[in-house]
Design a protein that fits this description.
- The structure is a homotetramer.
- Chain A is α/β, with parallel strands linked by helices and about 350 residues long.
- Chain A is about 30% helix and about 20% strand.
- Chain A contains ten helices and 14 strands.
- In chain A, helix 5 runs parallel beside helix 10 and helix 6 packs parallel to helix 8.
- The two termini of chain A are about 35 Å apart.
- Chains B and D meet through helix 7 of B and helix 7 of D.
- Chains A, B, C, D: Belongs to the NAGSA dehydrogenase family. Type 1 subfamily.
Chain lengths: ~350, ~350, ~350, ~350
């Protein structure tokens, strides 16, 4: 059994880790820390876990995380970089669900997140945890930078096109929509039910933190300079993410060839479902599951390709992807504990 | 492996059976019938099942259900009574999720459902599939009448009080609220998103089919004549049911004694969670799971007891309960395939 | 033109007052106070008011409310009682949307709201602002205690039955459901979209502040001692309230007589719509309007009468009712500025 | 008083016309036709209109629409073209909310809508009813082709940029999102609450009927060949539309100049609100009102301009726009009956 610690278990990615790990056959939940909720049984905060998770939150200083085999950080940015060095030094693997190790270029990180990086020496060793594009490195990793939710959809959607060199990398437009849980479990007016329900809006249109992360990763797949416009929107639903990816074709490829690029790229992937050409994937077909679905379109037969990508932002977009990484890091079957079928309707 | 057939797999209880059974370790999905969708791969209708359920719907006359060990009827009322006799005669067990065998009194059934009963000889042998109140009979059953969703909550909530003889059985008021999936997957104006969203209403207040079913079952637990007012309402959410049960206390019992009645009644039940006295169970703590949660209240310390009961209407209220019955009928562990934790948030 | 001031204009009842008063033909919005938002244009906080409300919030100490003809308090409990004495002394009428003057019995108030009453001398003079049950007094009033949202539905629904003496006043059960806006515009976890959406729950079941207010008002209509069980629930919708009111009939009345009690009681009321016997009023038929709709039922023809009452909790349940009072206090037509038709769908 | 007839009053644009026209000071509702609901009082179908609209639906052959001054067609495509010639011949003005007269090029219309045009002689005379871009012609019109909901947002958003010649008209990308009411009041599985709620999806990505309409209109503003990619999506909310419009800048313009283009274009418009540069308009700020709001962005200061446009799809996107046209056609004040403030929250 793998002894697992979770730092910051009170947020949505934290409780989602608990939901997944509580039924994972090779995991023993060992410690869940929360500064504010020290001593509170986890199931008192999340009654859905009553009878299933029987430990309590403990204050960070009371929990001996070095007893764990792996520690997940489901924390705001800045926490993992402070604690990871000691854990790694003691042989504990670390999976950070925040952004601390996602951007290799320290200057870009610090400009983007407006904090100093306190463990820059780990940036090189950190492995970006997008399994489908990085599997072999993840197997060897001790420190995982779990991808952002939006970046996961953009990379899975654009990678086959960039690798094949059939699109203009200098003019990518990603129009993305997320359920409200993506904003986290914070007491803020803007995400109250009476504010976010029955409403739709964009946010961060002039510039968003996920753009540099995504651009840097996409750049790996092409020699052309990547230029990405990324526009996030808030959808009145709890879970789910839908990315509508636009690119201009620079080569004369048929619809069949486009479709084949994707089918070939993901033919061995159990968590990427390439739907028939021209399909319209719905976010609800991934709700609660680690599945990402996509479909390719070519509006009016023109020179623009559109890729529609859906996932559950809390699973494949966050905690499920982290567990997928953990499975690989410990030599387990990749889908262990991740086989739940989406809740539909 | 148990060979399972599903008649009427296109509705919400049907797809919910598929979701549960596709990952059930002892089940082999053998046939799913649909008159209208003959030949259509199940996953084409429900993309959430892509890669997980690989069979197609078949027309009723093409499917040899007698090859199955058990057949679930996820159909409108009237279908199971037509087909059950032949299946039972050939040794196939039958679990009906509709009402055909729920009411023992043929006259009451026919008056309530306004159809003739074509298999009245089976009414006696049919076992009412509410496991927590009927476990031993279910283990021996060949024909299960799976309870209605509302009746499940009312029976679990009132039974301990009636058995203990502490309430006035002649004046029970059950104010119940259901998510919209309870209305089924039918093309009807009233359950369109633009009609049912951002709205709340009662329906069937003057009389509802679940009243006679519930009254007859509750009568088993008391000598006093049961009189039940049952008021269903429609909540703008997909899944979830919340019953607020009122009863007048006829004996001088303390809050602790009330609480103990429930804790004792369900102390060995893994799918009934008696929360601390005065709790407010939320429907979302059961979403996608087979768990039913309840809590006992006594407003302003008076002589009225209020029991709050929540469940997922499609799981414990329908398909999960049916699988729970199946497990017992085949001598399996009761919770096999039913251990999913609720999806929260 | 009536010069209107609003104290506490940033909450939901505040912005609803603004929406209604901005198009009221006899009103001039003169001052809107907010301690936190001093100087902020109202339309910056509520862009729906851009181009329609052109004043800014001002700090309480900067606004000279004594210039107003009437001041609305859309504040938490305790604010109006502090400021009303001075305003009234200077001839300014006061309408309090909070609870400060709703309960005549000071001891009950202080026990219920757990604060000292600092203006007990005004309790006698305050008029309870439920127009349909109190019109003549309201016309003469200088200080209005605007009713709570739940109490409005319970009084309108029970009053005709109590006045006619046909029900048992000692065993009233009111099962009520409210949209989330009723919880106010507060940064609290429990009313986040991701917590309150796709969910249903009861709250305050063991005792709620609206019970004493309602019981005291209902007592006016009967000599029998009123005993009320009131259970509030939270519905995943922004606006709307549905009360399901139960009472036991003590006299042999026909359905027609029951219906006539209500039709007679409200035949001259333009904001109370008595629907045909056995109807199921929907909250959405009142969304954004000052209309309250009700319908009478008698389940299975028994001795229990059920009254279904719906309203928009922010309009007839709060700000619309307050404007209705204002119209009467200033001798205007009762429906001035309140004629908007509900937004459906 | 203007005598108004409505053909097809049972759909969502029909009931929205009723909501607006019932309180319009210069309108007398004279006839509302419905083939299926002949004789049914309008308020029985839409209880929100109880006490406000007192006429009944009448079968088309029973209603003498020639008595009307103007007839609105809130019907499926194909109905207005059949009845408009006779009405126009008798001096009745016609406003068609469907597509029959939106596309001047008959061949394009017939290819797009897959029906023959039976009144091609009227195509020339029909005036496209987008007031802000076509006001003078509308004032003189007898036959109005009311714009589609999506096309309204795209035209208002792109027109100033195209007129100024600062963008590449050959590569416009419009990523648009609509509330579910846009799909109409039809008994279809796909728009059931349990299917469309808690979900997000694109539809018609490979080609949608609003593309030719919009392209043709946009072409009026530029000599460059317009090429438009239009992607509609379905948002789980009843009302509201959000269009995210992308264009590549071809000239070196500052943010201030971009903003000024829009402010100048719409400075006299009471139903177009140009928000400050970089704002994020929310659909709810237009709910129930005829207002359209927009804001201009320039992500990361690059060469892509993004225009965010919101409106209520049933008001400015349909029925409100139609009433705005009617006001102009009859020489009334443009905003008569259209001054309602959006319902927020």
């Amino acid at each position: 059994m793998i002894k697992v610690g979770i730092v910051g278990g009170t947020g949505y990615t934290g409780v989602e880790l608990l939901r997944l790990l509580a039924v994972h056959p090779e995991v023993q939940l060992t410690a869940i820390t929360s500064r504010k909720e020290d001593g509170l049984p986890v199931a008192d905060m999340y009654p859905s876990l009553r009878g299933r998770v029987n430990i309590a939150f403990s204050a960070p200083d009371k929990a001996d995380l070095t007893q764990c085999d792996v520690v997940f950080f489901a924390t705001p940015h800045g926490v993992a970089m402070a604690q990871a060095p000691e854990l790694l030094a003691k042989g504990v693997k670390v999976i950070d669900l925040a952004a601390d190790f996602r951007i290799k270029d320290r200057a870009v990180f610090e400009k983007t997140y407006k904090i100093d990086h306190t463990a820059p020496e780990l940036l090189e060793q950190a492995v970006y945890g997008l399994v489908e594009l990085n599997r072999e490195e993840i197997k060897q990793a001790n420190l995982i930078a779990n991808p952002g939710c939006y970046p996961t959809t953009m990379q899975i959607g654009y990678a086959p096109l960039l690798k094949a060199g059939v699109i203009d990398a200098g003019h990518l437009i990603a129009d993305c929509k997320s359920g409200v849980s993506g904003a986290g479990r914070k007491a803020e007016i803007g995400i109250l039910f009476s504010e976010a329900s029955d409403n739709f809006k964009a946010y961060g249109v002039s510039g968003h933190r996920h753009t540099p992360e995504t651009s840097a990763q996409l750049q790996r797949f092409t020699d052309q300079k990547v230029s990405l416009i990324f526009t996030p929107h808030l959808v009145p639903m709890i879970r789910g993410m839908h990315s509508t990816l636009y690119a201009k074709l620079t080569k004369d490829v048929s619809n069949e060839e486009l479709q084949k690029l994707f089918e070939d790229a993901y033919k061995d992937e159990q968590f990427v479902d390439v739907m028939p050409f021209g399909s319209h994937p719905e976010t609800r077909t991934t709700k609660g599951s680690n599945m990402l679905r996509l479909a390719v379109h070519r509006p009016d037969g023109g020179d623009t390709v559109v890729v529609l990508v859906v996932q559950d932002n809390l699973v494949k977009g966050a905690s499920g992807q982290a567990v997928q990484c953990m499975n690989l890091m410990f030599g387990l079957q990749e889908d262990l504990g991740l086989n739940t079928i989406a809740l539909l309707p």
